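Researcher: Structure prediction, please.
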Amino acid sequence: MRASWSRRPRGRRLLIPTAAVACGAIATVALAGSAGDLDPSFGTDGVQLVRGLDLSDDVALAILPDGRIQTGGRVRALRFTPAGQPDQSFGVGGIVPLPDSAPTDLKNAAGVAVDGQGRTLIAGSFQPGGGQTDRMAVLRLNPDGSRDVSFGGSDGIVDVDVTTTAAQTETAQAVLVQPDGRIVLVGTVGSDANKRASVVRLNANGAPDPTFAGDGSVVFGAVTMDAERGTLTPSGDLLVSGNDQPANASTPAAAFVARVRPNGTLDPAFGVAGIARSPVAVQQSASDVVQLPDGRVRQLASSAPDTDLLATRGILNGYTATGGPDPAVGPGGQRVYDLSPGAGTLLSSMTLGGDRLWVGGTRDARFEGMQVRGRSVLLRMTTDGALDTGFSGDGQAIRDDRDLVVTTAIVLDAAGRPVTAGWQADPSTGKVSTRIARHLAVDDPPPPAPPAPVTVTTTVTVPTPTPTPTVARPPSATSVLVLSSARRCVSSRRVRLTVRRPAGLTVRKVTVKVGSGRTRTVKAPVRIALTGRPRGKVKVLVTATLSSGATVRRTVTYTLCAAKKRR
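Model: Predicted structure follows.
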């Protein structure tokens, strides 16, 4: 800021500021982001991909107290730093292979948790060999990824033979850690024609807890009832979420929630003999369950038609504190979500943050050949299931233009930011990669105002100044319109356009013109197609109209080279 100056006028004397010094007048202004946007401080543009590593269709997720992110499934356990980079202190490059050879074979790894000492617990099933079927099992890893040989035997695995019947298959779908360090496994025992829900509780050293149902395990429910997820309540009860297929196979399966008391018995005051069932309107596949602060319960599910993926819909089941249908959610205590008419909606994971439900899933789900396609979606709802219009305008954020993305787990970090896990497939090769993403939970605050100048006042004689209008300069085109680099030739025939919101303004309209083609309106971020053009140079003109009425334009000339051949 320049010091003001004075010249002697005729006949007037005024007190005016003659010098102004602003501390920190030069500062870096960060562009604000909107709730639901991918967090640019995480991974690469909010996403971390472990390419070529398929952890299965059900990638599990947990957050360590220091903000690191633990995930696992099928054959690997992975850990990331709070910034989304591989945690080099865990295994090799942040990856630990899970045991996959008898007699220490951990199969179907589906649940992950972290205890108070930073040790990772991964639940699944165990194949003891000798002709015996699978048993429920849990593996514990030290903070560095090595097996905890103090847990169970000498291999870090504890397997539990719940039914003591060789012909019964047993598998754990979820693992939870109580505040006192005891470990809870939620799963299913029995074959498809005769399966029942089961819960196991172990002491911190892996031994069965005799204070839980007498021998550390309980089996409950009718036949063809399987348990999928669980959550611990502040009172120490356990809520178990699962599916109940009636004996008559033509009757759609209902979702159920069971309340198990700390001693291993079902709570008779909840539902019918401790089990509450959702309305049986459509075939359901249950997922996460949460308890609200007032004791009411919310359960996520998806309709599961046998053959028609396009007819799949998301479902929220609401229960009162005593297990009855909660009409606040909808008729019969149920609300159905059709986010993409003409395609399927799969809601697969849910968590509670304050007075809002966060839900991860996939919309626009469909089959193309033998491949499932869809787009990752993040929802924020009220506790009664209404989409929160204060979040991204309509309660749902799709901040990824990739088409083969499926979300299977969601948690909130200490800052309340949703972290999601799932998988992403390459549309050309079909190869699957594990995908971790972090989103912004709230709008970034606007840039801080510059510090007030320190003013020195003195007495001088000045003429009456003539006001000079101040014209605000529009932001530069490069600060608003971000295009792929033109340093190298483009073989993919696609360039990426991202629009950044200038401070204090909004972008009302964005148009794109490629070469001598027509001008079209787009919604960023977007990939601009250059397909059908021969090798050579092509100009891309992007124009953005701001809320101030100003217009910024940017032209980038790309060199097109031969497209890469697919193998």
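Model: Residues 477-480 form the longest helix (4 residues).
Researcher: Thanks, that helps.
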